[in-house]
Write a structure and sequence with these properties.
two-stranded antiparallel sheet; alpha/beta; eight-stranded parallel β-sheet; about 325 residues
Amino acid sequence: MIHTVLGPIADDELGFCLPHEHIWCDQALAPRAQLFGTLRNTNTQMRLDHFGHMLEELKAYHDAGGRSIVEVTCDGWGRDVETLARLSTESQVHVIATAGFYIEPCLPPIVADWSVEKLADHISWEIEKGVNGTQHRCGVLKSAIHRARVEGLELKGLKAVAIAQRRTGVAITSHTTGGRRQEVPGGNVGLQQLKILKSEGVSPERFIVGHVDERPDITVLSQLASEGCFIQFDLIGKEHWLLDQTRVDLLGELVRRGFVRHLLLSHDRNRHHEMRYGGGSGYCHILENFLSRLRQTGLSDNDIQLMTVANPARAFALS
């Protein structure tokens, strides 16, 4: 069973799934915006907030063959489960909402004010009962870093997420990279997060290491996959970080190393200009462009079905 904003679905109903996207968000709402630093132009902040536009984006994705999206906006910068439910109903795309915590600038005040245990109670409720008095449940937990290590309030949030994961059985998805100027050993903090999660009793099989294709290190990715983690290439199409052809080559190598059952693919759409109405390819780039490049490099239809259908179903099913 998988929790969507419209209720539980069977694992095999998930279909083609994008496991790391945004549908409704506004980073201008961040409670600790001063931590973004003086270089952050508010015009470049993550924002998607036009119902009609987003409905058309979801319908285009559905028409292209997409069936599900994991919406990874957390409390603190515009998560709206009621709007997600309306969009899901009208587009016929399954939407999985997210509990847990994003980077420190976007953390709601409760993270500083409450104990780890109380935070765990709160996010567990969002999964087991519903968000903000609604019956719309979250189906995944999230943890993130803003700096080059797991520390401070973000460490506190991760420990609360670990407790909630053990209680609820849902997966943990992660934001693993800091700013452009920060050197993160191994390219991401996945190994740091995993060490903490394991010490808190979380199985590696319930951990999705996100943003691995910003600064990929094939040795680190292989180590994480060998532990049992999901390895998520979720910036596909964002070639200012890495060329898509390099992503294709890395995915091919990970498949050859025997890790195809650990791979997930997504775009992390979060700004107007990335969507079709803004001149981008929206949620359709992987379906319309990237998969053909994977086939050209020698990956089979079975490999692709695992990465886009079977693996997400296994990742987001309750354990």
